[in-house]
Amino acid sequence: MSETTPTLSHLDEAGQVRMVDVIAKTDTERVAVAAGSIRMNAIAYGLLTQPGQGKGEVLNTARVAAILAAKRCADMIPLCHSLPLAFVGVEFALNDAEHRIDILATCRTSYKTGVEMEAMMACSVAALTIYDMCKAADKGIVIEQVRLKYKAGGKSGEWRND
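The structure corresponding to this sequence follows.
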């Protein structure tokens, strides 16, 4: 694979799908951060954030679901490697003006391949869990902008999506 010519790493020379062979790679510290958001109507957001209501329960459930999803990423994405996660962290930020919850998922490992998919899986499943727990109040909830924000480690080094 050339450094200057992008390729699809999960296709072989004949164009057939394959798992990337990482046996010759060295374990290095790797980190990935993914972000996304979930937006809902004022009624659903009000119910979620109202004192004494379920904000803590909804967000804690979403956090646990995100961690489990990161740990099971290889079970969902066919060509992902199973890898030992050293850390999965999920943070939420409430945006009252836009009735939005911003999600930030961070994954770390010391392994031969990166944790970008695990971070994006965590972020996606956190949003889906919030959707599931709030859908009775708003069927039109929108999950948006799930993306990789940062990665570091391995041959390609550090990358930012500012």
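The chain has a mean pLDDT of 92.
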